[in-house]
Amino acid sequence: MSQHKTSITESKQLSQELRILLIDDNAQRAESLTIALENSRYKVSHLASTNSGLLKQVEQIQPDIIVIDIESPSRDILESLSTISQYNPKPVVMFAEEQDTQAINLSIESGVSAYVVGDIQMSRVKPILDAACARFKEFQKLKNELTETKHELANRTLVDQAKRLLMKKKNLSEDQAYKAMRKTAMDTGQKLEDVAKTLISLLNTF
Fold first, then answer.
1. What is the pLDDT of residues 181-204, one digit of tens each?
2. Residues 58, 13: contact at Cβ < 8 Å?
3. Distance between CA 194 and CA 101 in Å, rounded?
4. pTM for the whole thing?
5. Rounded Cα distance, 204 and 199, in Å
C-alpha cells in the first residue's frame, strides 16, 4: 500500500508544471526554447534580460527553475547565483559559449546544476532540464543529510558536556547523570539537548 502511495506521489511530481525564469537577451532564441518545451511539464513563465537583476527577478517570480542563455557568465550573475544557492536554492541550467574550465568551475560552485557549452539542439533541452532537476534534488538531499548529521553531533557534544559537569559537580556516575538529564527532559517536555544547554549554563556559574 505504501509503495502504491509513493508511486502516485512520484507520478504527481513528474507531471507537475515547473515554471522557468529564462534569462536571455536573444528574443528569437528564447522563443525557440519556449516552443521546444511545449507539451512538457516545463513552462517559460517569465523572460528577462541579463541586465534585469537576477536576485530581484527570482524574489518576485519565485520560479521552479532558472535557465540562463548567455555568451559568458558575468561576475554579477555568478554572485547572484551563489546567493540564490545559499538562501533560495533552485535548479539552474546555463547555456553558454564560454568553454574556459575556470568559468565552468565557478559556475558550478555558484550553484549551476547543468552547464552546457555551445549551440544546443532544441530537442535536447527537455532531457537537459530533467537531468538538472534530478541532480539538484539529489544534491539538496545530501546537503540536508549533512546538516542533520552536524546538528546531531552538536547535540551529542552538548549532552556529553552537561553529563560530565553533572558527574563532577554532583558526584554522579555517568549513568546517573544521563538518567537525571533524561528525567528532567521528560518532566519538562524539553528536548535533551535543551536541558543540556540549561545545565551547562547553570553549572558553569558555580
1. 999 999 999 999 999 999 998 888
2. no
3. 47
4. 0.72
5. 8
Please choose, from the candidates 150, 169, 161, 129, the residue with its C-alpha nearest in 3D space to the C-alpha of residue 34: 129
Q: Considering only CA atoms, which of 119, 126, 9 is closest in space to residue 65?
A: 126
Q: How confident is the prediction for the chain on average, in pLDDT?
A: 88
Long-range pairs for 132-139: beta carbons < 8 A, 24 or more residues apart: 132/65, 132/91, 132/92, 132/93, 133/18, 133/65, 133/91, 135/91, 136/89, 136/90, 136/91, 136/92, 139/113
Neighbour tally for 197: CB within 10 Å: 17
Residue recorded with cell 527577478: 57
| Calpha distance 102→175 (Å, rounded) | 55
In sign, the C-alpha dihedral spanning 185, 189, 191, 194 is negative
Question: How long a stretch of residues is the chain?
Answer: 206
Amino acid, res. 92: V
